[in-house]
What we know:
The protein has helices spanning 16-26, 73-79, 95-104; strands at 6-12, 36-38, 43-48, 60-66, 84-92, 109-115, 121-125, 135-139. By secondary structure, it is α+β, with helices and mostly antiparallel strands. Its EC number is 5.1.99.1.
Amino acid sequence: MKLGRLNHIGIATPSIQDSIAYYRDVMGATEIHEPFDMPSNGVKVCFVDTPGENGTTGTQIELIEPLGADSPIHGFLAKNPSGGQHHMCYEVPDIHVARAEFEAMGKRVLGDTRIGAHGTLVFFLLPRDMNGILTEIMETPKAGAGH
């Protein structure tokens, strides 16, 4: 498995609006997308762009807030009431090949491969198998797609 581009860092937050204010007012972020609901994943999402080279977008920050009582983020926020880093997400060219390679290495996948916030297929790897970090693997978005 070859390490792909770091697409985003997921930050769980009890309030997306408070986190938007933090990234805008304290960190100076100027590219903040509109928040949107992802009922299928139980979260509200907002992407904050960081600057990349030559005017491109660098690594994004994905703010995630629980959406509804069944949100998987509730457990994280119960342990970390102020929020914090939830996961790191890396791109791969082929999600199915990547999943097979991780599983062949004995890495445990959490749940099914599904559509993520960028509109591409994703899966998550168990933190115990990934140096203590919940790791999201996503198929590289097609040009002009997603957030």
